[in-house]
Amino acid sequence: MAKLSPSILSADFANLKEEIEKIEEGGADYIHLDVMDGTYVPNITFGPPVIKKLRRTTKLPFDVHLMIDKPERYIKNFVEAGADLITVHEESTIHLHRTIQEIKNYGIKAGVALNPSTPLDNIEYVLEDLDLVLIMTVNPGFGGQSFIGSMEGKIKKLRQIIDERNLNIIIEVDGGVKLDNAKEILDYGADLLVVGSEIFESEDIAEKTKAFKLL
């Protein structure tokens, strides 16, 4: 079965508690929280206060994706808000290894996100410290974009590297994931799918979540 991390970026924020309950009913494994600062990406979403409030509504693990500049400034805040896993972008921090270690020192999981143009080589020397690598299959900043087809090779190459080195790392894929391409993406080597509009803009959120879980 597919592992699923629905992104609430596409949810109805006026009914967020109810929509989280629906993805729980559908069998979601995580909740994906896209944090944007308007600097690293051209959009602004929410921060630790919102996440802290949401933490009271669900026991699902919080998969916090920081699309922010200098994320090391706020790691403690997001941990205290309830993050179970924090992912930072390779380009967003000068000292990537130090930032990864800071996340892990709080006893939670650490991930690194790679934009479509960011090569896998950029994480060569931190790979063994990671719990997750997030392959962005759209350019970050907005929901509803189409999957960039050339990312197929990137996912496959990362899968090969992880298997050859016998590492325990989750490959997460975020961007343009739909029911009609999700099985292919899993076949490329993904472990965890981030899905936004395909779930939250559907007529039955719980049923659409279940449909992904049955892939």
TrEMBL record:
CDD domains: RPE (cd00429). Substrate binds at S7, H65, G141, F142, G143, G144, D174, G175, G176, G196, S197. Its cofactor is a divalent metal cation. It comes from the Bacteria. It is an enzyme of class 5 (isomerase). Pathway: Carbohydrate degradation. Keywords: Carbohydrate metabolism, Isomerase, Metal-binding. Binds 1 divalent metal cation per subunit. One of its GO terms (molecular function) is D-ribulose-phosphate 3-epimerase activity. The active site is at D34 (proton acceptor), D174 (proton donor). Its EC number is 5.1.3.1. InterPro entries: Ribul_P_3_epim, Ribul_P_3_epim-like. It catalyses: D-ribulose 5-phosphate = D-xylulose 5-phosphate. A divalent metal cation binds at H32, D34, H65, D174. NCBIfam families: PRK05581.1-4, rpe. Belongs to the ribulose-phosphate 3-epimerase family. Catalyzes the reversible epimerization of D-ribulose 5-phosphate to D-xylulose 5-phosphate. This is Ribulose-phosphate 3-epimerase. The gene is rpe.
